[in-house]
C-alpha cells in the first residue's frame, strides 16, 4: 500500500518579474502571501507505521520556509526567476535533498487565485 501525506505552510515574500504583460507593475518590487502544500508518498514503515514522521516533515519545512519568508525572492540562491513554477521546483528539490520522499508540491496565492502544482515521478 502507498500513502500520501501533506503538510501546508505559508510565507510572505517580495519579488520582481520581467515579462511581456503587466510590465510596469511586475518590474516594481512587490509582495505576496504564498501558500504551499508539500506531499510525500510511500509505504508505511513496518516499525513506525508512518511514511514520514510528520514532526520531521514540519521541521524540514520550517527550515526551508526560513529561506523564503520575508525575503526578496530574486536573491534566493537556486530559485531562479521567482515564478510559481520555480517555487514549486525549489521547494521539491530542497526537501528531496533532505531525504524526504516528496511526490508533489503546490504553491498558490489566494489573493489572485493563481496556483501551480508540480507532480514528481517516484
- Number of DSSP helices? 3
Beta-sheet strand percentage?
A: 25-35%
Radius of gyration: 16 Å
Strand order, sheet with most strands:
1-2-3-4
End-to-end C-alpha gap: 14 Å
Multimeric state: single chain
Order of helices and strands: EHEHHEE
Average pLDDT number: 94
- Largest sheet geometry: 4 strands, antiparallel
Structural class: alpha+beta
Low-confidence stretches: none
Question: Helical content, roughly?
Answer: 25-40%
Given the C-alpha coordinates, what overall shape results? elongated
Say how many strands there are.
4
Task: Explain what the structure shows.
- With 122 residues, the protein is an alpha+beta fold.
- The protein has 3 helices and 4 strands, in the order βαβααββ.
- A 4-stranded antiparallel sheet has the order 1-2-3-4.
Helices and strands in order:
Blueprint: E1 3-15, H1 23-27, E2 30-42, H2 54-68, H3 84-97, E3 102-109, E4 114-119
Antiparallel strand pairs: 1-2, 2-3, 3-4
What is the structure about, briefly put?
It contains three helices and four strands; from the N terminus they run βαβααββ.
Name its key features.
single chain, 122 residues, alpha+beta, four-stranded antiparallel β-sheet, 3 helices, 4 strands, 28% helix, 33% strand, elongated
